[in-house]
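Supplementary Methods, section 5.1.

A reviewer requested that the exact input to the structure prediction be made available. We therefore reproduce it here, unchanged from the version used in the analyses.
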Amino acid sequence: MRRMTIGAVLIVAAGCATGGPATQAPPPSATTAPTGNGTPAGTPTGDGTPAASPKPTPATTRVGCHGTPVIIQGDGFPEVRGASQDAEVWGLLFAPVPFKRGKEVKIVWRMTGEGPLKVTAALPDGTRAKPTFGPEQHGSSSWRRPGEEWGTGFVFPKAGCYRVDLTRTHGSGHLWLPVK
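The structure derived from this sequence is encoded token-by-token as follows.
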């Protein structure tokens, strides 16, 4: 009887050491927030286990221009979520919000739908942001949001709230970005 008890303890201990569920990849929600270097929190290390974060970094959501939510996770890049009737629209902002007028800003977009992406940004008075590059489709990414991904660059010439319109053959959406 004593041998069976010791054997059962050894089997359970060996099972814990082989890395059951605790070593599985994190759920998609754990990889959605990029860290300060653009790598999502929880990105697997070389051995497939999630990289340890020094401490949890809760997300905070602020309301930007015209109600566009600006999501900030720890020291990561801000994200914005657009409004749409027939698509899902996300932007990853490579600059703090509000943007500085006259400075180039890189924005990565993810959008569901079909077809190429067209992006424009303008103030209500008609002043347009100047595109510096893109949209350039990205082949792979560590940013986890729905849809295909493109990169763009813009210079916003004046302060204000810019309406950004994103259009694909099937799918469209918009959001607002503040510039100071």
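The mean pLDDT is 77. These observations are discussed further in the main text.
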